[in-house]
């Protein structure tokens, strides 16, 4: 895939950019300042090396994809206030997987998460994405509600999903961007995605 443009950001005062390995200290500072997600989902605070590992963007062997992105949102000359990680063409062309959308704890319930997601969805569609996919662990019900409120639909539930130190039951959710059906989505997954590696 050719290099994508960057999405716009509709939140006043925030800029968006693609984070690179050089941004690992900035990303780790965000993880450290906002530990609630990691405590709940991974069983402890994010270790120092996690920021670098996530920016390297490597997926497990056997996963076909175009690129693993991490977007950072921040005011000018200030720390990050949100990050969005996603993978393009995961398993099948035009199927994008959202790994995480994290907003600073003090901005929860401000509407920023919804605005950033809307910006991202509009941009993803303009870049050729037909499907969006997320995986949410059931002990994080606030995130599950968020994605359903954005129009995502439950596909299936996976048991025994390890995230960090914890083992979870996780829900797979999807959203068609251009009128696709669940049957069409499942056909993509069945043909291209080994179930033993699913998350």
TrEMBL record:
EC numbers on record: 2.3.1.193
Keywords, in A-Z order: Acyltransferase, Transferase
Record GO terms (molecular function): acyltransferase activity, transferring groups other than amino-acyl groups
Enzyme class per UniProt: transferase
Range of residues in the leader sequence: none
Pfam families attached to this UniProt entry: Acetyltransf_1 (PF00583)
InterPro entries given in the database record: Acyl_CoA_acyltransferase, GNAT_dom
Domain N-acetyltransferase: start-end pairs: 14-178
Protein name (Swiss-Prot/TrEMBL): tRNA(Met) cytidine acetyltransferase TmcA
């Amino acid at each position: 895939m050719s290099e994508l443009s960057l999405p716009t950001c509709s939140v006043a005062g925030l800029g968006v950019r693609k984070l690179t390995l050089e941004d690992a200290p900035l990303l780790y500072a965000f993880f450290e300042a906002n530990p609630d997600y990691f405590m709940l989902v991974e069983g402890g605070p994010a270790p120092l090396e996690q920021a670098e590992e996530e920016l390297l963007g490597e997926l497990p062997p056997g996963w076909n994809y175009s690129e693993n992105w991490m977007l950072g949102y921040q005011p000018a000359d200030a720390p990050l206030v949100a990050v969005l990680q996603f993978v393009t063409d995961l398993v099948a062309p035009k199927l994008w997987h959202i790994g995480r959308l994290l907003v600073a704890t003090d901005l929860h319930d401000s509407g920023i998460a919804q605005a950033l997601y809307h910006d991202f969805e509009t941009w993803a569609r303009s870049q050729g994405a037909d499907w969006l996919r997320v995986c949410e662990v059931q002990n994080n019900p606030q995130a599950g509600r968020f994605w359903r409120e954005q129009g995502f639909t439950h596909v299936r539930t996976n048991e025994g999903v390890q995230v960090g130190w914890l083992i979870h039951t996780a829900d797979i959710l999807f959203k068609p961007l251009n009128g696709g059906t669940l049957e069409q989505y499942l056909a993509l997954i069945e043909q291209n995605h080994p179930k033993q590696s699913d998350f």
